[in-house]
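The following record pairs a protein chain with its ligand, iron/sulfur cluster.
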Amino acid sequence: MGIKKVGAKPQTLVEKIFFLDFIKGLKTTIKHLWKKVITVDFPYEVVTPPPRFRGVHGLRTVDGTENPEFDSWVKRLKIKPPEPGETRCIACKFCQAACPVPELFDIQSEKLDVPEGHPHYGLKVMTVFNMDLSKCTFCGLCTQACPTDCIIMTDIYDLSSYTRRSWVLDKDMLTQIANDFVARRGKEKFDEKSQWREDQKLWPEYDRTREKLWDFNMPKLGLNYHDQTA
Ligand code: SF4
Ligand code: SF4
């Protein structure tokens, strides 16, 4: 197999004498010299991302703004009805099921140790909720799968760390992050009933363009598709 060597185009004599390449480069620099700077000098300058930004996760707590199905999910999963300020997580693991890297989650629940006849007998609480964000792709699918709007993504993007261990966030840390985010920017992210605002959803209802593109490109025949022309 022959190898074709590709090198830089040799300069002409005129280009060499008059430094034409240098002048071209300088022209580009001067052209951009007076334009508005769009980069920031991180970490000395920081930007505030839009509320739809998919940054570090958080776990929301019960604050009276849960969706209408919240109580029925709590009953269905046999979870102790949470008090205000306690986590909305019902340990259903839908977030983990939706995640392309499910092993980054460690979600566990335990039955309450109460005697028979106690109102909470036979009910569970979520006990462990760890997320290893070093494996996260920040796709946001977990937030869309959560039936209680518990898991959210915030505007925190600085994940730099000296240890891998610090990327594993537990339920207390995730709860603190969500509480802080909701207090700071909740109004931008959620409506007056604290439900997701339409423009903050990962797949907003009005975003039909992508759906149409997919319809258009859907294969008619293939190993994994039925013959739709039949
Ligand atoms: S953002 Fe995506 S990759 Fe990260 S935890 Fe959620 S579903 Fe998994
Ligand atoms: S989907 Fe929501 S409620 Fe279910 S385990 Fe995940 S965070 Fe908890």
